[in-house]
Specification:
- This protein has about 400 residues and is of the alpha/beta class.
- It has a single domain, classed as TIM Barrel (Alpha-Beta Barrel), CATH 3.20.20.210.
- About 40% of the residues lie in helices and about 15% in strands.
- It is built from 13 helices and twelve strands.
- Strands 1-12-11-10-9-8-7-2 form an eight-stranded parallel sheet.
- A hairpin with a 5-residue loop joins β4 and β5.
- The longest helix has 22 residues.
- It is globular and about 60 Å long.
- It starts with 8 loop residues before the first strand and ends with a helix.
Amino acid sequence: MLRSTDRIQTTHAGSLPRTRELIEANRAREEGAAPAGFTDLLRDQVRALVARQLELGLTVVGDGEYGKSMSSPIDYGAWWSYSFQRTAGLELDENQAWATEKVLSSPGDVRLTGFLHRRDRQRFAEAYADPDSGIMLGKPKAFPAVTGPIRYTGQDAIAQDVANLAAALEATGAPEGFITSVSPGSASRITNRYYDTDEELLYAWADVLREEYRAVIDAGLLLQIDDPCIAENYDQIEPAPSVEDYVAFTRLRVDALNHALRGLPEDRIRFHLCWGSWHGPHTTDIEMKDIVSTMLRVNAGAYTFEAGNVRHEHEWRVWDEVELPEGKIIAPGVVSHATNVVEHPELVADRIERFASRVGRENVIASTDCGLGGRIHPQIAYAKLEALAQGAQIATRRLWR
């Protein structure tokens, strides 16, 4: 894993805007009419995307999650829903939109409600109901339910993802690349009609996803675990739990993830935490100080998290009290998916320096808050990545002078 030994390295959180051509091809595939030459199209698009990332000044690049189907310009769920096409034991439930209400067994009888039942949504019901409010949610999708023993069936899909990125790295000379994969805790947020307990379901998902994790690492790529449930679940528990109960509830999800990661090299693994990327008020988010220790329990070499949006930017102060474990890296978001305003490079540099002064410049990689694909217009997304790279250059000059 690249470290900032002589300059601030730069990366992003995963999802990047799909081209119109790729969106239309994905839409055709979902309608049962896969276009001829789709495999070649996807390979060529990943290569072009990697080249563009390098041109903008990024050093640790990704495939933009292009292998995770997105059939509309706005899509907040592709990072997660892709796993349903790669898993047996699921059946589509037309009554499900996101994760509907269900009772989980730890700790006690914690009630995890679905996306449409968030406490943030209840507090700002009028704004959420207004289609002109700017709270971009996209169209609800039908989600599957677990109806039998689950097993991984995505071998061909992940092999294609790996091959496309590896080929793009070789063609462009990019020094390092990563592929994202969903966590067991986040993947399991669908209705369960088969497993007896929440723990049994989580560990079943851990065994399923481990196969994908190993495929990425065995190919020599970095693996990024996408796990917003660690922070985001808090807003979906009614009534609001105590921090202690929530941490206990979340610890099981971390344990299941670590089970899936057992024996895999930590220095090839990144862990991404966020509070959900929809453009809402987020006033009921749990604070970083309450979950940072839980995040650091994940067996990963680097941790990425939101640090650029207005609800969480102030939380850089957490690192005044929390010691980053030896050898670990943080990749804080220094540009945000939550606004169309493009951050000034000087602001980006300031954000980078705040973290560098607390955990060491060599332990900081500049990143984005969350995926930019499906959240903001492509032209703005790439302007933000350019600002990120320019800000990293400014911070490098300041930190190594």
